[in-house]
Amino acid sequence: MVIDPYVLNGNMIFWIKEDNSTTIRVEDKSWNHKIYVASDKSLLKSVIETDEIFSMVKEYHFLSKYELITDMKRSQVLELELKDSSYSLKIAEKIEKMGRFGQFRLYNVDILPEQSYFYEHNIFPLMKCKVHVSNSKLNWIRKEDNVWSTEYELPLFNNIHLKVYPKIKEGKIPRFTDSIASVAIQNYDRIEDTIYIQGSEIDILYQLVKEIEKINPDFILTEDGDSFTFPYLTHRSESNKVDLILDRESIPLCRPKKDGISYFSYGKIHFKPLTAKLFGRIHIDTDNSFVLNESGLQGLYELARICRLPLHTASRASIGKCMSSLQFYNAMINDILIPWKPTLAEHPKSLGDLLIADRGGLIFEPVMGVYEKVAELDFVSLYPNIMFKKNISAETVICNCCPHSKLRVPELLNYYRCEKRRGIVPISLEILLKKRAIYKDKRNSTTDPKLKKIYDARQTALKWVLVTSFGYLGFNNAKFGRIDAHIAVCAFDRQILLQTARIAESHGFKILHAIVDSIWIQKKDLTNNDYSDLKTEIENKTGFPISFEGVYKWIVFVPSKNNAMLPVSNRYFGVFEDGTVKMRGIEARRHDTAEFFSNVQQGILDIMSEANSIKEVKDLVPKIRNIFQMHLELLKYKKVPINDLVLTKRISKNVDEYENRNTVELDALLQLKNAGKSLKAGQILKYVITDYYRKNSRKRSVPFELVNSKTVYDAKRYSELLAETCNSVTEPFGLKLKVKE
Ligand SMILES: [Zn+2]
Questions:
Q1: Is 601 contained in some domain?
Q2: 332, CA 20 to 30 Å: which among 354, 395, 487, 594?
């Protein structure tokens, strides 16, 4: 089973886990990454005649490929097989500079060599297969395993959790100059099996190398390996002049050549630290892995297999990157090139189409307030299902081949869909949609709790890729994205929701709210089969599966915080008939809420969940007041653990770029900076408020890293915030809680 592929000294290396659990290294010296160049024939010739470029090329060919996904015909392109797979970017930049802007079009440049190897050989991580090694050439003989399999077996991996403790005083930020106090190596599956390494720093380093060699782990998990643990260990080993070998190649850890980066995605700024790669082992940084946090190792395995991404990359990948890898594979096997710098232009639009296109997915705005006996129905993966069933992709909406297509797009006069070919997006979505449905079935029908957990983790991982597949379609950096495809999906969505609303009305229901893929309805004098009849008719008429979420005893559509007149469509909370609380967009659900507030709000909701009607909720007011008072007292007498009061904020600028000098966040940022830690845009700031109302002070707050046993929180400010959080759920029922002076 392939566990870790990478390029080293120009060659592809694979670490393979054998049936008997031993790990072996094989090398493919015959293969190299290929990039493609398109331009006039004479210019292409000049490329290979340039010595500087030719010296990096092993072989070249003129081939016919589809340059753009929208192309109807293949064109002649120059294929350059590189001498070293890591030359890709260097050679592409040189070629680009040879001509005027746009004269050379370059393809497959920023695809990882590991990825293109996987695509070309039709293999994938954790695939069970046989491989023949001869003359440093690998011949992959596929066995029964393939990406569609839902019953694959994995070997017993040897996984450890690594933690390094620097020698620092309480309330100080660790620096690279602090020496190591101790190291803990924990067995990932048996937590009680932990090895502690202590002693002089040089002994610790030597012993760490020895222990890792002895344990020979496949996976090393850390909490901050990319941003701290490994860069720190590197510094410590350099100052002690110790070769710190933790990988399987016997290459000592060394300093990366550049810094991490801030980048903008889906309306948010993020920070990506450099990654610490251990050749032959998989290093997973749990702080830098969305996939792992949402779906665990089982979800990560599934994504790496299905998207053909190395585990190291998959664990750090944004979900968009997983989706794109799946698309690249489908493009490559269809002879379509992957543009280095995507340039699919928008189709020109009429004013009418523009106005309609701007509507997005909102149909019925909710009327704010509290309601009883409301049913919710949700379409299952609606956007991906629309793209899949309606064949929506960059190259199939307003395609070049069928200008008279009968397949139209609702409302949009000038939009049509291809009649001749399947798009790359629907082709890629098929495996995600179908496998997820199978995993959900398996999860629901198995009685084995261990298997149930595995199936659920895998379907969750696939769900995340599906959820973001739509945003990715309109994302301007996506290689195969196009805003017209995005607009077409929204148009179908509105049509389906409108149709659904009409069907519900014809069944005597009143529509309270409908957005994107959910609808909330109400009916007096219900009879037994009303909901199942409705569900059946919606599915038959729209052609899309819908699930009946349940009936709320009561539900609240919450007004927006900024403007009480404007409801915000994704803010609501309510209680189903079985007592389950469901909430969206309110504090207890949000990741930036301090633990203390989430817990109190959740506690109030739990009490409210016993009420069967709006009146019964109102009867609980004395009980809710008591809870509120009790927590106010806790705050007042400083009984709340400071860890529960940590507020978090993703910062939007580097610390030096802030101008407003009077916020609690900036106070914390500056203190951190003085202590030696300058946060960059996209990183998360954690802080505690200490003296909110002393506006001229620089000590209104303290960053979490500098909190110590003497830190005292600002009880007054936290009391006000507590009241705000409680009021979000009590005010709709007429209860406004206040902090008494
Ligand atoms: Zn067509």
A1: no
A2: 487
